[in-house]
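This part of the workshop introduces the protein records we will be handling. The structure tokens are whole numbers drawn from a learned vocabulary of backbone shapes. The record below serves as our worked example for the rest of this section.

===
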Amino acid sequence: MAAALTVEQEQATKEFIEAVNKCRAGRRASPVSWSTAVKFLAARKFEVSRALVLYEQHEATRRREGLAALHPTQEPLLSELRTGKFTVLPSRDATGAAIAIFTAHLHLPQCTTHQTTLQGGYPAKLKKVLIVTAPLWFKAPFKILRLFVREKLRDRVFTVSIPQLTLHIPRDSLPRRLGGTLEIQHEAWLLHCLKSMTNRSGGELCEVTPQVGSPLLSTIKSTISVNQNPDNLNISNPTSPVTEKHKIKNGNVTIGDIEITNGDCWIASDEAPSPIQPPSSASSGFSDDDSLHGDLGVQALTMEQLIEAIHSRGRDGLVAEYTEIRQRQPDGTFNNAKLKQNQPKNRYTDVLCYDHSRVCLSQVEGDATTDYINANFVDGYKQKNAFISTQGPLPKTCGDFWRMIWEQQTLVVVMTTRVIERGRTKCAQYWGPEPGDEVSAGGFTVTTLDVETNPDYTISMLLLTNNKTEETREVCHMLYTAWPDYGVPQSATALLQFLSLVRQQQTKMLANRGDTWAGHPRGPPIVVHCSAGIGRTGTFCTLDICISRLEDTGTVDIRGTVEKIRAQRAYSIQMPDQYVFCHRALAEYALSRGMLNPHHLAMLPPTVEDDSE
């Protein structure tokens, strides 16, 4: 069910409908429906002028590609639909999104025009495109093209192998030929669409024959037509501002505003039905344009402005600011963490993980309670789910911890606490501290390959073996030891160097993965934990995000960053000293990069020591 619109959104919808229907009345076309208007507006954040431009572009493309009227019971569209080359599966992915599949080898360019193929899959607004078993002639130029396209598109289109599909889509939502357990019911889907269109009240953008109607219009929100020919690849997207013709010929590739291509077959996962959706474990809840600190925001400051603001308010002002943030009630539920069978998996009874952003493990033997671990996805700078903030594993949850590492394809684990501090156990010894050590947990064996010890940190290279499949992966474990038992570091230099090393290690490990990683260019989530997974963990994530933003835009927003992190991992940044330390650490970083002068640092208030965990 779609979320209720605000008063402003309802007014925008009325304005959009009035403007559009004036144009449609001149062509004697039926009025546009309320639901269709909301879809156009939601795609442009309810800005009426931008939504109208999108509508006009859609109309122009629809007329150009012969989509003004569809006749599914007549040739050639009837045969096109019956080929089964395009279908929507009777299942959803983990986020509730519908799954559309296009099998390219069923498309014969000499028999079907691209306009007919486009009509057979109209319209579908794609959230993610997975190109499966792409041929070599496509994969090579595709790697180069990814470097030049817009980030939003780059994060939505991937080339994957069949085994990698289960990393994006649950096995029970995939057809058998793609490694799943699902039986495709193409004819049932067509019948469902037929009934849906027959019962419609009209008012949509595309005219259909009364007795049948478009089989796809009621099910998904856009479509993509692919003409499979190695020497001439034509792609059309009716929801894009401009329909592009793309050609791959003799190794030369030209591409415009669209980044959709074909392989042997591909799967496209479209947006969930509601234009305003609740967040899930796979989606942080922030839109693409609002990815954590991807926008400048009203609180954005240059480093000099930040120093001046801190100097004028003093330490008490920063503490008051933190107190205001801390006093807000958590914006989310903890139902899974509070389940009786899950309570023993929480290290602390008052540090629980949100339902909306929790990391869900695969279920073991159909037991729904086995998917729980006290861990949350946290967005990074322009990267969704860049981190997994989690508690230090308990002896009974070490197996769950390594299962999470395996399923999320994590390359780097950052640990910001010692196993024992001040005589108290902060974390289980879930890995072997010496080369050659082996630790078994759950269905995994962890072998320590190499250990590098430094005054401030210890780096261990681990070999993680899945005992069931006998597959192995290398994981880098990075333990930061320079955080004092009480309080926060007096100087951030060591922590900043460690943070830089973490990023270098992630880049190195990702490069070693080669083509086996199909996600964000910065790699899979970095797992970060201390004891509770909120204090030092939140401080580490805050600094990484702020530094990335500072390097990219020259501005920072520490408060906004902390607020958004806390919206995904409750209570992150546990103490006021940690909040103050983030400001000092960022100033020290800016000084090291020549963005500030030494006298700026002298203007900062001292960081008072306190118990940080």
